[in-house]
Design a protein that fits this description.
five-stranded antiparallel β-sheet, alpha+beta, single chain, 16 helices, 531 residues
Length: 531
């Protein structure tokens, strides 16, 4: 049945309205007939991807497409001519109010959400966004309401999912911010954020607990006024490294405590996007302990050397007393033979022979005492110089690590064996390595590097060298350092290098020194091979 005829029959079954009502109904019916006859409009209704409907002013469906019927689950045919109260009573009051608002204002109403209205509630979780626009005739009179509905269920589920995600992320950010704030507050390390010029922007409470200065006296200032004057040049060099994009490691400086003392701080810092992020650990107690340990080791080494020297001196004095006494006796006898009126040259000659023999005996005594204080095999036992170096470095490892010295070994792949006294040569290398470590202890503007090399020498000999990067040796003292009782150390005895040269020369070798390039000194040991 044609929709217009259906509307006429529906209207005829009702009670006879007043004349004005009849005229109004006729106008509405006429407008609906005009609206219905537009084929383009019908095509739009049938193919539109959204829900469309046209309501009369008394809220009856004059047009509706299939997509809009998905809201209530009633067919298109069951909508036409029926009111909203008959089809979807749950939203009837809302629809009637919307129509009255549009009639009153003449303006459309948009963005009204509607949920599914099927009787079985199968689409209760679906949401449509509806827009309500007045339709006017040629005289500008509103003759009905055009309704457009778009299913935004998936969109809703996605803004919901996004909202939940944002809430989750917000919760995580809050939690992580809280955790980091707690770490920032309880950390015993000094944490700081500064600008590119080193001005402090933020610091944690550890600054106050470690250095005694309140935050208000530090924020907005650089740390130059806290630095020990001897560390300021070092700090400027590290700042340049930061500006070049490098990360500082184990950068130690002294910072002023509020009580006037200084605390040792070990820094690690990085620059990022114009900000410096730094962490410092108070290593004052550790540094003091290391210094005390180093002093104790030095003192122990000195005591050991003094004890050894005293024992050796006593042994030499005891053993050499007899040959020296014989030399004196024979010399006096020779003088007496010469003082006679007629000198007995034969007796003098005999006395001189005895003196010479006693001198050789004294030399043998010294050699035997030297061997007595050595360890290992006697001179002449084949020895691998590389093994000797490795063993000696291992013995000095604790002292080298305490002084933060990097040992670089450049040992030849294969060396000829040398006839040597292991204990004596080990003492030579150990003495030179220990001296090198002491010379670098106060070096802070460059890496503390100890380089030990070995190489073959001549046909069957071996050459060893020990190079440091310390302050070096005054050229005027380069040869004097091997003299007995000459020393450049405040508490030195001047015997170490003299004994070392004596031991090397006793093995038929040489011990010398030369300036290092660009810093420090190089000690050269050359030992002959097996003949």
């Amino acid at each position: 049945m044609h929709k217009t005829e259906k509307l006429k029959r529906i209207g005829s079954r009702r009670a006879a309205p007043s004349g004005e009502a009849v005229r109004s109904r006729q106008r509405h019916l006429h407008d609906a007939q005009l609206y219905e006859r537009l084929p383009e409009l019908q095509l739009i209704y049938d193919t539109a991807p959204v829900g469309l409907a046209f309501l009369s002013l008394d809220c009856r469906y004059m047009q509706i497409n299939q997509r809009l019927t998905e809201i209530c689950g009633i067919s298109v045919a069951d909508h036409i001519g029926r009111s909203v109260r008959e089809t979807v009573p749950a939203v009837a009051e809302q629809v009637e109010q919307l129509v009255q608002v549009i009639l009153h204002t003449g303006e459309p109403v948009t963005g009204v959400e509607v949920r599914g209205q099927k009787a079985d509630k199968s689409n209760a979780d679906h949401v449509w966004i509806t827009n309500w626009h007045p339709l006017r005739n040629a005289d500008g009179i509103i003759i009905g309401i055009n309704v457009v509905a778009e299913d935004i269920t998936e969109r809703k589920r996605a803004e919901s999912a996004l909202r939940e995600l944002n809430e989750t992320l917000e919760q995580r950010v809050r939690a992580e911010t809280h955790e980091r704030l707690q770490i920032w507050n309880v950390s015993q390390d000094l944490l700081a954020i500064a600008d590119a010029d080193g001005k402090l922007l933020n610091i944690n409470p550890a600054w106050t607990s470690v250095l005694g200065w309140p935050e208000a006296e530090l924020i907005g200032k650089t740390t130059q006024w806290l630095l020990h004057q001897d560390d300021r040049e070092k700090a400027r060099a590290e700042t340049k490294q930061l500006a070049a994009g490098h990360v500082t490691h184990r950068f130690t400086t002294r910072f002023l405590h509020r009580d006037g003392s200084y605390r040792w701080l070990s820094w690690k810092a990085v620059q990022d996007k114009g900000r410096i992020y730094a962490m410092a650990r108070d290593v004052t107690e550790l540094t003091d302990a290391e210094n005390k340990l180093m002093e104790a080791r030095q003192e122990l080494a000195q005591v050991s050397r003094r004890t050894t020297l005293a024992a050796m001196s006593a042994a030499i004095a005891h053993e050499i007393r007899q040959p020296l006494g014989a030399i004196v006796t024979n010399a006096n006898a020779g003088l007496r033979w010469l003082d006679r009126a007629t000198p007995d040259l034969g007796e003098v000659r005999d006395s001189l022979k005895h003196i010479s023999a006693d001198g050789h005996r004294a030399s043998d005594v010294i050699q035997s005492v030297r061997a007595m204080y050595g360890k290992g095999d006697p001179v002449g036992t084949p020895l691998d110089a590389n093994e000797l170096v490795l063993e000696t470095i291992a013995m000095a490892n604790d002292e080298l690590e305490a002084a933060k010295i990097d040992v670089q070994l450049e040992l030849a792949g294969q060396l000829p064996l040398i006839p040597a006294h292991r204990g004596q040569l080990q003492q030579v290398v150990l003495n030179i390595v220990t001296n090198a470590a002491e010379s670098m202890r106060n070096i802070d503007d460059r890496a503390r590097t100890l380089r030990v090399r070995s190489r073959p020498f001549d046909s069957n000999g071996v050459a060893l060298s020990v190079q440091d990067c310390g302050a070096g040796i005054d050229p005027e003292n380069m040869e004097r350092i091997f003299d007995a009782f000459f020393t450049t150390k405040a508490n030195g005895m001047g015997m170490g290098l003299a004994i070392c040269r004596s031991i090397v020369e006793a093995h038929g070798g040489t011990l010398s020194a030369s300036p290092g390039v660009p810093y420090g000194s190089i000690f050269h040991i050359v030992l002959p091979g097996i003949q």
